[in-house]
Design goal:
With 346 residues, the protein is of the alpha+beta class. Helix content is 55%, strand content 8%. A six-stranded antiparallel β-sheet has the order 1-6-2-3-4-5. Helix 2 runs antiparallel to helix 5. The chain starts with 14 loop residues before the first helix and ends with a strand. The relative contact order is 0.11. The N terminus is likely disordered.
């Protein structure tokens, strides 16, 4: 009987090996893919590291701004105290001159008595460094003439006042020394945070740095905020001044006219309008009438963050002009660029 088995096909050389390798490779690729989380649609591989860097930079700038406003507050107190120290020292000098004149007058009186027959022990005691001890001896007052007694009491009063002035001047000098040490600490703190921010910025590409500094500036406008007219002539003058500063560099601790930090800019702008407002953003928050953001008008101060560590000036159209941070010049930004703490109308 004839066999009906199908003839066996002989595989081509290498065909079986290639098929097995293909199957194994596909399986391995599938396993590897299962271990790698899927990236969000449209995301670049380095999106998250860049976002983390930007977040850390923002945090350092925020911390530096808090420290800068503390520095500004201490610097303002230091300036005022320097004036008080100068006035106190001037008062001491005038008091010493008065004491010297009174002592000279009493010395002249003693000289006249000496030429007429010797110095009375009473007059000699008047010329001591401590006439109080003599005046306390009431039993001897009958030996002093009315003119001598008047001059001696004037000297006594002048010496007491001079002692008080010297004590006050010494106290103010001690306070000034403490504030100057605090200024050095604040300055070191700011510089440390800004240096850390610069190091992180250098980890970004030039394109990323440009995107970071320019992604908000002048592009977004708020809607439905307040009116378009300043609340007063001085507010209009302040708005004109702050707009004239656009493009000037940021410098911490600076209040113009060549460079600014945030509160230095707003203080300078109102100074150009003939109005004095405090130096720090925290103090500027209380430098006028509080109004809702929805009623903001050009010239109002927009204070940011719960700690009031940043401030800008509302200029209308949903925008503020402010000094952002080192490396970013004075510029326009949307009023809602960060959480608004309050709006103040000086």
């Amino acid at each position: 009987m004839a066999s009906h088995r199908s003839p066996r096909r002989t595989p081509q050389p290498g065909q079986g090996w290639t098929a097995r390798v293909t199957v194994l490779s596909a399986a391995a690729a599938g396993a590897a893919a299962a271990l790698v989380p899927a990236a969000p649609a449209g995301a670049k591989p380095d999106d998250k590291p860049t976002a983390r860097l930007n977040s850390r930079i923002d945090r350092l700038y925020e911390q530096a701004e808090v420290a800068t406003e503390k520095y500004n507050g201490v610097a303002e107190r230091t300036g005022k105290l320097r004036e008080q120290v100068a006035n106190a020292q001037d008062g001491v000098a005038r008091g010493q001159a008065k004491v010297n004149r009174l002592r000279d007058s009493l010395g002249s009186l003693a000289g006249a008595q000496y030429r007429s027959g010797g110095i009375d022990p009473t007059v000699e005691l008047m010329l001591t460094e401590d006439p109080d001890s003599y005046l306390d001896k009431a039993a001897t007052l009958d030996r002093i003439g009315s003119r001598q007694l008047t001059k001696l009491r004037q000297l006594q009063s002048a010496q007491r006042h001079l002692k008080q002035q010297r004590s006050e001047a010494a106290g103010k000098l001690e306070q000034l020394d403490g504030l100057q040490k605090s200024l050095k600490r604040q300055k070191k703190d700011v510089q440390k945070k800004l240096a850390a921010a610069r190091r992180l910025l250098h980890q970004l590409s030039p394109q990323e740095r440009a995107a970071r500094d320019g992604h908000r500036s002048g592009k977004a406008h708020g809607g439905g905020i307040g009116g378009s007219k300043p609340s007063s002539q001085r507010a209009a003058a302040a708005v004109a001044a702050v707009k004239s500063a656009v493009g000037r560099p940021y410098a911490w601790g600076a209040a113009g006219p060549g460079a600014f930090d945030c509160s230095g800019l707003t203080q300078w702008a109102y100074k150009q309008a003939g109005t004095s407002i405090p130096r720090t953003s925290q103090a500027q928050r209380s430098a006028g009438q509080q109004v809702p953001l929805s009623q903001a008008r050009p010239g109002d101060l927009v204070v940011y963050r719960d700690d009031a560590s940043h401030v800008g000036m509302y200029v209308g159209g949903g925008q503020v002009v402010h000094a952002p941070h080192p490396g970013a010049p004075v510029r326009y930004d949307p009023v809602g660029m960060m959480p608004v703490s309050s709006v103040t109308r000086p």
